[in-house]
Design a protein that fits this description.
It is a single chain. By secondary structure, this protein is of the alpha+beta class. It has a 7-stranded mixed β-sheet. A two-stranded antiparallel ribbon has the order 1-2. It is globular. It contains 6 helices and 11 strands. The chain has a single domain, classed as Glutaredoxin. Helix 3 links the parallel strand 5 and strand 6. Helix content is about 35%, strand content about 25%.
């Protein structure tokens, strides 16, 4: 199936809506800690893994983890961001640092277990793909303060507007920071290593 390409206006609108609440925390942190105005990010969720098993956040966030919300039919943004996150994980592995990567679908109607598994295998052998019912996905999205909206139009080749932050989450302490689309793999690796050093 041939995807429809995102227009610049669509991406700009999604980014603007998805990021409008972000602000830098007033507490100095050498790693660049950030927070969302008015509320915390993260929390419990229940989704379906790429192996067809129902899992919770505690099951899949067992080490420092990069968490990203997207969808597999996304023509360019999600593959690029997923590849970037995987590259950051490989860079950290070279330094002896083990982190996880998670891809959570915001398009449960099309992103079946098999589709999500095939998608994540393209980027990192340990990347975990998660999908679920619309209700499960909505709950996870609300916990992480992400935005997504299915565009009206073609029932098969529709696009999904969505926010594009990648979150760094720790199993013991939860959300640490987020990375925008223009953050490089090297920067993600450096900042992640910094946060891990702060916790040891």
């Amino acid at each position: 199936m041939k995807p429809v390409i995102f227009g610049t206006a669509t991406l700009a609108a999604a980014a603007a809506i998805g990021l409008y609440t972000w602000q830098t925390t007033t507490t100095p942190n050498p790693c660049g800690s950030t927070s969302v105005a008015g509320s915390a990010i993260g929390g419990p969720f229940e989704l379906v893994s790429e192996n067809g098993e129902t899992v919770t956040d505690a099951d899949v966030i067992t080490k420092p983890t990069l968490v990203y919300f997207g969808y597999t039919f996304c023509p360019d943004v999600c593959p690029l961001d997923s590849a970037r996150n995987a590259q950051a994980a490989y860079l950290l592995e070279e330094q002896g640092i083990d982190i996880g990567t998670i891809f959570i679908s915001v398009d449960p109607e099309r992103d079946t277990v098999e589709v999500v598994r095939d998608f994540t295998e393209n980027f990192h052998e340990d990347m975990i793909g998660l999908t679920g019912t619309p209700e499960q996905v909505r709950a996870a999205s609300l916990a992480y303060k992400t935005y997504y909206r299915v565009q009206e139009g073609d029932p098969e080749y529709y696009l999904v507007d969505h926010s594009t932050q990648t979150y760094l989450v720790f199993p013991e302490t939860g959300f640490a920071t987020f990375f925008r689309r223009d953050t490089t793999p090297e920067q993600i690796a450096e900042i992640t290593a910094c946060f891990m050093g702060e916790l040891t």
